[in-house]
Amino acid sequence: MNSSQFPSEPAAAAKPAPYCAFPGCKVPPTDTCSRCLETRYCSKVHQTAHWKWHKKICVAPQKKISAPVPLKGSLKEEEEDEVKCVVCLDNVVNAKLKPCGHSATCRECTQELMNLKEPCPLCRKLIASFTVGKWQSTIGEHGLWLTSLKNLTQLAGGEGFNEFFRNQFNGNEATYLRWKEVFDELEIGNARDVGPDLPLEQQVLMITKSEDLVKLRALAKLCSLEFFEDSSLSVTVEKRILEVLVLAMPPVVEKKVRGKKRKQKKKQNDPQKLEIFDACAALVDACNWVEDWDDSRRYFERAKEGYEEQLGPDDAKTLEATRSLIMSTAYEYSDEEFIEKLRYLVKRCERALGEENAVTLETR
């Protein structure tokens, strides 16, 4: 066996981080993760809150050197089989089924399943439609579809970047510069930070698992309807933005009052909370794009309740979220109930915003 497959000597210990690993926390750490012995926290509270995300990359030190470093093209057969179509066992999985969202078949077999009116092989739900793309099964729930991969590859190719944008916007210099600024924020397609051998799709997937809001928001813009039209990647990025914002919220402070513990009341109009509710509203649009109506409604309700708490029931954002929620759940009501809810909302808008800004009465 080639000795180069094993590290010749243990890597030098990394310099301890000066701050707690919990996003946004600037307190010096005192506790260390007992598993990886690398990530450090200021308290058990922050360590517990961060575990959901840290566990995805947490590896015990002995496991990092207990196995040989895999060489390029040396995947085992069973690992390769994981990305093969479960029907033909030959083609690579490249179809994502709707509405269940599973990805276990190739395009040809998926089309045949639909022709025969067969259900999804995994959950047995009927297949309404499917999209074709590249699914990274080793990343878990994160997927990067061919639309974005093709465009990003072209963008990252030096002169291909300029050619792509100028063709995309037909010489519109202002739009070209705006999108160039967004792409520059991603810092992908080069070896400066991530290494020359890391595939471009892996660089993008690393962003979707990171806590860098600047890069996440830049990626959200690029996969929007205006540009890449990549609905699957849009949902992944918007969900990650929401996760990072929630993680950055400081823990609830408790104080003792006359021998009893009482939660300290927060002031309204908390900018961090409003940012979270805005992220929920953005995630609604992404979920609607992929026709995930259950999640869409859940985030609608969260945004509406949050706006009511922070801004009050008569704020424009609260009223718009209420209107959208009524429209998205119209199937639950009779025509009379549906129209009555809208009429009541119109009256609220007239009182709060004036008649000229009130929403119009929509019907089904």
Automatic annotation (TrEMBL):
One of its GO terms (molecular function) is zinc ion binding. The keyword Endoplasmic reticulum does not apply. Signal peptide: none annotated. SUPFAM superfamilies: HIT/MYND zinc finger-like (SSF144232), RING/U-box (SSF57850). InterPro entries: RNF141-like (IPR047126), TPR-like_helical_dom_sf (IPR011990), Znf_MYND (IPR002893), Znf_RING (IPR001841), Znf_RING/FYVE/PHD (IPR013083). GO terms for cellular component: cytoplasm. This is Uncharacterized protein. It comes from Triparma laevis f. longispina.
